[in-house]
Amino acid sequence: MDMDMHAAGVGSDTNYAFARDYWYIVAGVTGLLVAIRGVNAYGASQRLRACNNPAVKQPTRPDGPLSQAWATATAVVREVGHPQLYVPARGLRWATPPPLGRVLVLLCYWAMVAYFMSWGAVVDDAYFWERIGFRNAWVAVAQLPLLFLLAMKANPVGWLVGSSHERLNWLHRWVARTMLVTATVHGFHFWTEWALADFVQYELSMMPLVKYGLGAWGVLLWSVVVGFVPLRRLAYEAWLLQHVVSSVVMLWLLYQHVPANAKYHVWMSVSFLAFDRAARWLLLLWQNTRWRKPDGSSCQGMRRVGHGMSMRAVGDATTVVTIKDVHFKWRAGQHIYLWVPRLGPLEAHPYTIACAHRVRGTCCCNSIQLIVRAHGGFSKRIHTHASRHPEKTLTGFVSGPYGAPPRWDIYETLVLIGASTGASFTVPILECAAAAVHRTCVRRIEVALIARTGDEIEYYVQRAKEAARAAREKGIDVRLHVAVTGRNSEGESGVPLVPRRRESNTARTVERTDASKSGASYTDTPAEKPGSSDTDQPPDQAGACCCRRSSSSGTGSPRSTAPSGFIRDYATRPDVEALIRAPVEQAWGETAVVVCGGRGLVARTRNCVGRLSDERAVHKGTGAQGIYLHVEEYAF
């Protein structure tokens, strides 16, 4: 590793050029994605404008040669990117490869890196080992800033291209693995040259920077190995802490290792890291402090520092967390980081905001709700505290909102699939469509809520029913599919959720022959459980986000509701393809399929949407309209 401050190395001009070209390509790809985002944003605005024009019958269909060509190109890219191979073997599900689209991106990236590593460097002469060693040193260090750029939560690239940090994190991990390969090739060739000349010990004693390089390579190797899912999930909080420390240590070691003319890569990485931390700290400070004194007319949860946080245990493992008086806006599908010093002094965990943003004037305070599923550690402590002290309020701190969900109001049909707590992502989309003030393009919504036990999704089902009724009053066709696939508390296998509650004399069941064969039933039931009412909950917890509307409070008697025949219950897992195919085939415009769940459900949905798009030849002259797929996966 002959890279001291006075030795530029063999082939230095070419190495410098490749290091610059690497970032020119990164900038070019980013610019292309920004341009694509701009075209899509313009198309979305045109579509919404058409939705408000009664003369346009099908506003979500392309209406000209340019828009049709763009829709066709988009459909082709989507079809190529959707397929995914799923590894169902127990204990190996984490090894499920990325979807085909990401695999193709990686292959392109690896092709570029392989070209940089080898072009003009593989020449069998006296400088063979040294030339390849220097080339790969520059290729490795050129990737360093991108590694830190992709890890930023306050991510400028994500802001430009319309993505969020967690959706870029997969590329961060693969860039690290690729960088490890190039760094290994760099070190291997220098080490081999020294071994052939029999002066390894002399080189180590004479060149201290070699030891720093070996140390940086060791830290990178450690980070890559412990970053694999099984190890990362053993103790996520400990892993996260060591990951931050390892990153800082690696930067210092590389600063000591690389020559002066390559140190700008290290300083770029330091600047990205410092900017990200500073932006997050400022955001945390801004969102958790009040400069005006709270008064009696303010929200009851207002505090000078932090937010009042109430918790309510729902079932044996679910907690509804209400955070009061947040002064930021959010969109359905975004998430925040929650820090509760009393329950976890050094822990901040991500949770999806489980409610749509309230319309101004309908709520007395700006509160959000999180649905926390108790697994262990922090989430378990939250549930335990809520069970033991249901009336006690804690102080919580939030950071966010993070995430860049697309616009949901530009599609004619929405298919929302949520498994267990994945409903925290999908139900707010339904609520957002139901609460829309202006006319949107949405005409039909299919919602599927899937869980092993009814307790996991009981809270979501109640909210989904209320939102579905509100949406149907606006003329949107909503159908709710509820699947409880495991055993209930009485030990019965596969008992549907809604039929278990059918205790009221006013409830009636309409069984259908085809539904019976598929393990499903259609139900006409009241919206709430018999005897339930808004006053069964504390005032600050009774609603999707905060206070109930005045029309739903007061008497404590059950709210009267008309029977609703839009709910279908399953005792087994619903057929995802059948669930998606029916609305897609009946849609006159574009359909958006949204899925939030585990790897298995996500892979099945990806493959299903890919097959349907290919089978129907969407936007290829058949008249079939496009299918957009949005995926949220349990990936932390």
UniProtKB/TrEMBL annotation:
Residues 278-408 form the FAD-binding FR-type domain. The chain crosses the membrane at residues 22-39, 100-117, 137-162, 174-192, 212-231, 238-258. Residues 500-515 have a biased composition (Basic and acidic residues). GO terms for cellular component: plasma membrane. InterPro entries: FAD-bd_8, FAD-bd_FR_type, Fe3_Rdtase_TM_dom, Fe_red_NAD-bd_6, Ferric/Cupric_Reductase, FNR_nucleotide-bd, Riboflavin_synthase-like_b-brl. Keywords: Cell membrane, Electron transport, Glycoprotein, Ion transport, Membrane, Oxidoreductase, Transmembrane, Transmembrane helix, Transport. GO terms for biological process: copper ion import; intracellular iron ion homeostasis; iron ion transport. Residues 487-567 are annotated as: Disordered. Its EC number is 1.16.1.9. GO terms for molecular function: ferric-chelate reductase (NADPH) activity. It is found in: Cell membrane. The keyword Membrane applies. It catalyses: 2 a Fe(II)-siderophore + NADP(+) + H(+) = 2 a Fe(III)-siderophore + NADPH. Coiled coil: none annotated. It is a multi-pass membrane protein. Belongs to the ferric reductase (FRE) family. This is ferric-chelate reductase (NADPH). It comes from Tolypocladium paradoxum.
